Amino acid sequence: MMKKIIFYIMFVFIASSCSKYLEVVPADVPKLDDAFKNENTAEGYLYSCYSYIPVVNDARTNFSWLMSNETVGSYHWGVQYFSFLRVQQGMYSASEPVLDIWQQCYKGIRQCHTFLKNIESVKPLTISESEFATKKKGWIAEAKFLIGYFHFVLLQNYGPIVLVKEEIPSNASGDQMFAARRPYDECVAFIAGMFDQSQQDLPLSYPASEQGKPTKAAAQALKARMYLFAASPLFNGNKEFYADFVNKDGTVLIPQNFDKERWKKAMDETKKAIEFFESGGGKLYTYTKTAIQDPFTQAVMNTRWQMVDPINSELIWGYTGTKETASWGNSFQAHAIPRGWKTGAPYGGVGATLSAVERFYSKNGLPPEKDPSFDWNNRFKIADGDETIKLHRNREPRFYAYIGYDRGDYEIGGVTKKLMLRAGELNGMVNLNSDQLYSGYAIKKGIHPNSNVTSTQFTVVAYPFPIIRLAELYLNYAEACAEYSGTLDADATRYINAVRSRAGIPSLSQSFGSLGGGELIEVVHREKLIEFMFEGHSLYDIKRWKQGERYFAADKNGMRGLYSQGKTADEFYKDYILVGRPFFFEKKSYLSPIKQDYINVNHNLVQNPGW
After folding, report:
1. Mean pLDDT along residues 248-254
2. SS3 at position 237
3. Please, what is the end-to-end C-alpha distance for the chain in angstroms?
4. Which one of 210, 427, 511, 588 counts the least CB within 10 Å of its CB?
5. Are the C-beta atoms of residues 83 and 99 closer than 8 Å to each other?
6. H or E element at residue 149
7. 245-267 burial code (b ≥16 CB/10 A, e <16)
8. What is the average pLDDT score of the chain?
9. DSSP strand E in 384-534: where?
10. Above 60 in pLDDT, residue 554?
């Protein structure tokens, strides 16, 4: 019965939201009143609002996770089947944006407003009025949180957006139906207001059966992230890119004057989020499933499990909308776990680029290219008596937790397997027209160690994909502090060192000595890129730093990897340009294009610059 109700709800919504394009709605469409007959149908409608959250654990179509130059897909995969390949290669436009987050999020916003408009008419059927009043207060807070979140996702991807502050009637006309984009600061203020309103009545936590619903801490954490974006160079006085970015009436959409106090606002909001989450027991994740004596191994286990353990003291909000399975065609684990242990899935077709591999620190917590004890110039050579190159030795624990390399360990199904990644070997390339780790590297991060693959079986352990976790707030605070003061205060120092300590590397001062100004900001940036590699952050961070050309220019002819077609060590261990896997980035790429169809319909809507 519930499935039938939800189907009716979705049908009504879709017909209503498309009414400006359709002239006729079928006469037998159930009335919206049916969705709000009682507390059960109303709750079902609220759950349908969550369905518009982007599927962040979708390997093929996720709009940030696999779309930076951290990862590379199998050489023979076609762009028509893998959206992330089209984004990496710049094969998208306003007429065909590939990933239409705009439409999806506005549908979610409309769904939430419809819920808020109708919830007061609901009469409880199986519970008392007082019980229903309590439930209703929480549901309203959830809907407001989702309105804020959907607007923020739009803001991340498109910059200034159209604000939908209430339900727009299907018979609306003029500027009510065809609204213009609002200035960036106005968007920030509105979204912050929605998160603040939701925070008042959201709970501190939920039972395990309701994992994935937002809490007070989630509302404050996402608000803090938004203020960090607002302080960043892409949006804080960016005359270089956006001096002419205006509405048709001349309204300026991006702040034209740099305001240092935006970084202070980001600091303050992030500190609130940290203190709020920690006051409820939140803390950085530490692996405790088995006793470990060796500190280095402990750090490897900390960082291997920090993303995938569902019993997680660090997770502020995680995505649980689509449960990953081995048979799901868009499963990241099915696409990333190396091939060879079983025919068919897992495919071993998504691997780490050499650029990602080189980004990790040495065991001394320093960039290996700057560590005097690391033999950087000979990094592709094998030391006497060893079986893998120097690049894979003496690295920080996160390297061994995140990356699978030739002749290295790969923990899966409760056992440790040895990767054999050269061409013709068990996990290596068969030929260019079959599934392969084209870069010669596998990914461990995001692969649950208890997912299992044998010659006859493949199973996946699902987990809440982290949308935001405590380590992000720690590093965001450090970044904002470095930008605002040119140095780190006591809190920022404590936060960044906590992340480094959990990762098994020395403190910032032990590794780098005294840092300040631009040098300090560079170090904080690299810490963020390492900690959140393969987690969907790097593309957004590099864009908001206004550093796209710097980070991506070298990959325009092909991202980097090892020569996976090599059968011998001498052939395999080479710095190789991955033919057919370029990464294109232009000035216009900082903001996603709005689909031209929407521009054509809404005469007040302006396109993003360059599109």
Report:
1. 98
2. coil
3. 46
4. 210
5. yes
6. helix 129-158
7. bebeeeeebbbeeeeeebbbbbb
8. 93
9. 403-404, 409-412, 415-418, 442-443, 452-453, 458-459, 465-469
10. yes
d(CA 534, CA 591): 21
- Judged against a pLDDT cut of 80, whether residue 30 lies above it is answered with no
What is the structure's pLDDT at 4?
32
Q: If DSSP codes are grouped into helix, strand and coil, which group holds residue 467?
A: strand
- What's the mean pLDDT in 373-394? 98
pTM (predicted TM-score): 0.94
The contacts of residue 507 (CB under 8 Å, 6+ apart) are: 365, 497, 500, 501
- Mean of the pLDDT values across residues 243-261? 98
For residues 304 and 301, give the distance between their C-alpha atoms in angstroms, rounded to a whole number: 5
Residue that is written with structure tokens 């939140």 in the block: 282
Distance CA 90, CA 97 (A): 10
Q: What is the pLDDT of residues 329-358, one digit of tens each?
A: 999 999 999 999 999 999 999 999 999 999
pLDDT given at position 415: 95
List 412's β-bridge partners, or say none. Answer: 415
Given this model, what pLDDT does residue 10 score?
A: 34
Cα 496 from Cα 592, distance rounded (Å) = 31
Widest distance between CA atoms in the chain: 79
Which structure tokens are listed for 359?
């980004």
Q: Using alpha carbons only, how large is the chain's radius of gyration in Å?
A: 25
Residues in the chain, how many?
611
Structure tokens at 127: 């519970």
